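Hi, here's the filled form for the chain we discussed.

Project: internal
Contact: R.S.
Residues: 204
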Amino acid sequence: MGRMSDTLTDERISYLRVPDREELPEDARALQDAGREKFGFVPNVVRGWAVRPEHLVKWRAHYDLVMLGDSKLSRVQRELIAVAVSSVNRCEYCSTTHPAFLRVALQEEGRDPHVAHAVQSNPYHAVHDERLTPMERAILSFALRVTTSSHEIGPAEVEFLRASGLDDETIFDVAQVAAMFNFTNRLANATGLKPNPEYHDMGR
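And the returned structure, exactly as it came back:
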């Protein structure tokens, strides 16, 4: 049996059927409209995953809570986790979109946007990159453990994060961002989700 991807054309954004906007309930259409207003295009994630609109809306609400909600983690720190986890999971969609978001966030802090490429290329080397703060390197190390060996995490790893300056609520946030991207990466890979080409130039 051939791979499902063998039947796809370059124009397809998902292995699955992509519903027309007119088919969608109001809350799913609102997500697409918000994406167009923010970026100038509709992100493929809110088109492709609209095949299950209720699931899309609830996933997006959780994403917004984790990535944009109240936390001591900065936008840069959350995007560092997103990029590192997505790189390890070889998620084409998130390894394209979130380096773009990280480049923008780094520039907003007056930092080197090339850090995004370093984390995307090899997150295991990035934990030693001196352009990152010691706290950021600790966060990345923990996120990688959540991704590849969460069953081995013990009190020592949590104490290391505490010693790096994170309180318990923020440690939970680090774990939650990493876990959410592990879920999202796997769903994106399984559905063959393709990133919008506009992300490649964002923040450059």
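Let me know if anything looks off before we file it.
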